[in-house]
């Protein structure tokens, strides 16, 4: 089917906008790119619902070097069940060098309200100042922090999932592998929302949908270059490209969401098949007419609410 009709005017406006100058200093490019993200996608996201409370917390990271990151905790309204609420560690989009928890407030609050889970949205450090594996180690540290402080968070440590969007989905998938291999408590489930899973960028949808659908092949190539220290050798590292992992057995049950016109479509669907082949329970769904990021357009595209609800209901089912 064609691109969803509500999305086409956004694509037209982005195509008509002047390109960012490649020689701008990083800070200026990041500010301009975040502003473009806010005007093209996040401007059409619903505001946070009433009743969900938030607070910011500080998390100590030990690897690769000691440091601190912040996270935002979203707690649903109403009394908590005996033993604590389920939890969901969320990692935001932004191709590793853009984005912040502020920009996904509405998304996280809606997920908390509908799923009944406490959502912990992680402000991982961004590339290129912090290259691979820094953001991944931040995700890992946040997971361990939630496990260790579950009682204070009102969370049942045995009912916690991990997930994310885009680059955040990449970190969630890689963190699930890392937790398994380091013999740490693993998530009950993982939510991979339009996730970047193959940094070789070699599957057909990267070329088919790599121009004119918001997220471009050129932007992905730039992001990979910013994220990886050695792009030639690290592109197939399974903690950078989970699609290249040799062993996916024992990983958490997964929800994999893809969009018809997303350049990341094929790697998401390929990863779902690989997980299934390894005996991992998988729910995979492609949203026709969607570009990358369309799931955030909940105030504009009616089906985007279904997209978000698919994640919330998956968490509600798998976390009990």
What does this structure look like?
The chain is of the alpha/beta class. The protein has one domain (8-17, 40-319): 3-Layer(aba) Sandwich (Rossmann fold). It is 38% helix and 19% strand. The protein has helices at 8-16, 26-40, 105-115, 134-148, 150-153, 167-181, 204-208, 217-227, 231-234, 265-277, 302-319, and strands at 53-61, 67-75, 85-91, 118-123, 155-165, 189-193, 253-259, 282-287. An 8-stranded mixed sheet has the order 1-2-4-3-5-6-7-8, with helices on both faces. Helix 6 links the parallel strand 5 (155-165) and strand 6 (189-193). The radius of gyration is 18 Å and the shape is globular. The protein starts with 7 loop residues before the first helix and ends with a helix.
């Amino acid at each position: 089917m064609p691109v969803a009709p509500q999305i086409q005017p956004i694509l037209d406006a982005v195509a008509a906008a002047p390109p960012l100058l490649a020689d701008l200093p990083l800070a200026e490019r990041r500010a301009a790119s975040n502003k473009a993200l806010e005007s093209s996608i996040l401007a059409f996201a619903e505001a946070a619902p009433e009743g969900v409370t938030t607070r910011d917390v500080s998390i100590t990271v030990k690897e690769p070097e000691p440091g601190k990151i912040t996270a935002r905790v979203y707690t649903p309204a109403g009394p908590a069940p005996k033993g604590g609420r389920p939890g969901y560690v969320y990692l935001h989009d932004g191709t590793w060098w853009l984005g912040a928890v502020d920009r996904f407030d509405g998304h996280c609050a809606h997920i908390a309200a509908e799923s009944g889970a406490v959502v912990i949205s992680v402000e991982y450090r961004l590339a290129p100042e912090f290259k691979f594996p820094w953001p991944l180690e931040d995700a890992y540290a946040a997971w361990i922090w939630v496990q260790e402080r579950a009682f204070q968070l009102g969370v049942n440590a045995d009912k916690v999932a991990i997930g994310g969007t885009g680059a955040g989905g990449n970190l969630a998938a890689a963190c699930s592998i890392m937790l398994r291999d380091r013999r740490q408590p693993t998530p009950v489930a993982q939510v991979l929302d339009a996730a970047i899973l193959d940094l070789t960028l070699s599957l057909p949808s990267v070329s088919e949908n790599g121009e004119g659908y918001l997220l471009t092949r050129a932007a992905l190539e730039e992001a990979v270059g910013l994220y990886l220290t050695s792009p030639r050798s690290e592109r197939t590292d399974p903690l950078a490209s989970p699609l290249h992992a040799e062993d996916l057995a024992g990983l958490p049950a997964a929800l994999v969401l893809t969009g018809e016109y997303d350049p990341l479509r094929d790697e998401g669907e390929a990863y779902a098949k690989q997980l299934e082949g390894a005996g991992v329970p998988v729910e995979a769904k492609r949203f026709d007419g969607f570009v990358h990021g369309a799931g955030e357009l909940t105030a504009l595209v009616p089906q985007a609410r279904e997209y978000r609800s698919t994640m919330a209901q998956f968490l509600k089912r798998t976390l009990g």
